[in-house]
Structure formats: structure tokens, C-alpha cells
Design goal:
With about 240 residues, the protein is α+β, with helices and mostly antiparallel strands. It has helices at about 5-10, 15-25, 30-40, 40-55, 75-100, 115-125, 140-145, 145-160, 215-230; strands spanning about 60-65, 65-70, 110, 130-135, 160-165, 180-185, 190-195, 200-205, 210-215.
Length: about 240
């Protein structure tokens, strides 16, 4: 993922991202110099500098009556995200009083796009239950490498055991809590995860989609079928 896209994903605008990256590249300098480096007009640059100062991502000094701006250590981005998280946590009690739970519990939920897929994998982490995976072709690590690495680290940290059945001769991403076996099966774009009382089918189309079915009996049936395949699979 490009650095500019990463910065946009954590909440910076396009112009803020360009100005911040320019400040990292050229060091302490004027807003006008940042404007040339980022190739955006001066007015937009000054607005972006002001917002980056407010976010604590830029500092400045005054030399001979002129302001020189300096990017802070990129580690500040982690603090910035933590502050946003704290704001949400503070607002959660009030937001929860506004939330109306569905009268009938939904057993099937659909997710769309990469943000939706992130929600599915975060749900696996929240559940913390053993995860049975069938049909993975490596799409997760190929299409979402950064988040995939984060997910595996969290999975290991939480001690979530994973069993994976994959196609013969396909390489798998190593994990301390995962066990892999292989079967001679056809290649597929659909990957099934079974954890807790849930069955998740992720379809790695473009953009990807997922179906999450929450049903204890259905999950147990899928789990039994998986174990049959597991016994037949090769180590």
C-alpha cells in the first residue's frame, strides 16, 4: 500500500497526506516550499499545515520572522490513532443509549469490500474461538498483506488455534497457532471459516464479499464435516 493511501486510511485528507510526506522528505521548511514539493496550491497547503499542527503531526519554529515547519517523528501517528480511539471510548456510553437492537436477531449478515472483510477477521479475533478454515488459496495475504500480518500476530497473541485444509502443493503463511493439512481439491475463490457458532464464507472477488451465518446447529454440522475432511487430509 502506498504511504499516501495509508495516511488517508487513518484519517488524513489527500492534501494533508501530501504535505506531511513532503515535510518528512525535506525536513524543516516553509509552507511555500512544502507547496512546491507536494505540488498543491499554497492556499490548500496552508490549510493542511494548520490541520496537521492541530493533530500534532507538525511543529514549527520562527526564524527571522518566518515560520519553519517540521514533521514530528512518524511514531506520533500511533499516538494520534490512540487519541481517536479514546474519543470513541468516551462517547460509547452515550452512543449505546441511542442504539436500538433489532427486535429479531439476524442470523445472516453480508459484508462488502475490504473494510467488510476486515470486520469479519476482527470478529474472529473477538470471538477468540478455534477457527477451522477450508479452501484458502492465499488470497488474504496476497490482497491484504498488512492486515493479514496484523491478524496473524493477534491470533498468536490471543492463542487462537487454527486448523487449515488447503489444496495440495499450495504454500501457506506460517503461524505459531496454525496447523495445516492438504487435500487434492479444485481451486476456488470461496474460503470457509468455522468458529464459535458462526460460519463465514469469504468470496475473494473484486471487491471481496462475505456471508456470516450465526447458527449453533449449522456451525456444528460444518464442524463435523470439516473433521471428516481433516482426517482424510495429508500432513
Amino acid at each position: 500500500m502506498a504511504l499516501r493511501d495509508m495516511l488517508k486510511k487513518i484519517g488524513l485528507t489527500s492534501n494533508e497526506s501530501d504535505v506531511y510526506l513532503a515535510a518528512l522528505r525535506i525536513g524543516s521548511n516553509t509552507a511555500g516550499r512544502f507547496s512546491k514539493e507536494a505540488q498543491i496550491d499554497r492556499s490548500a497547503t496552508y490549510d493542511s499545515v494548520k490541520r496537521l499542527l492541530e493533530k500534532g503531526l507538525l511543529t514549527y519554529t520562527i526564524i527571522s520572522g518566518r515560520k519553519y515547519f517540521q514533521a514530528v517523528d512518524p511514531k506520533r501517528l500511533l499516538e494520534y490513532l490512540k487519541e481517536k480511539e479514546e474519543i470513541v471510548e468516551e462517547a460509547l456510553p452515550q452512543l449505546s443509549t441511542l442504539y436500538k437492537e433489532p427486535k429479531e436477531k439476524r442470523n445472516v449478515t453480508l459484508y462488502y469490500g475490504y473494510k467488510g472483510i476486515k470486520s469479519v477477521f476482527n470478529d474472529i479475533l473477538r470471538e477468540g474461538k478455534p477457527n477451522l478454515v477450508y479452501g484458502s488459496e492465499g488470497q488474504f495475504e496476497e490482497k491484504m498483506p498488512g492486515f493479514c500480518t496484523y491478524f496473524i500476530k493477534q491470533q498468536e497473541k490471543l492463542g487462537i488455534k487454527t486448523k487449515m485444509i488447503i489444496r495440495s502443493h499450495r504454500k501457506s503463511m506460517p503461524s505459531k497457532t496454525s496447523t495445516v493439512r492438504r487435500l487434492d481439491v479444485a481451486e476456488s475463490s470461496a474460503v470457509t471459516n468455522i468458529y464459535g457458532n458462526k460460519i463465514t464464507i469469504i468470496i475473494w472477488s473484486e471487491p471481496p464479499e462475505a456471508v456470516v451465518i450465526e447458527n449453533k446447529d449449522a456451525a456444528e454440522s460444518y464442524r463435523s464435516y470439516f473433521e471428516i475432511l481433516w482426517k482424510a487430509a495429508r500432513r
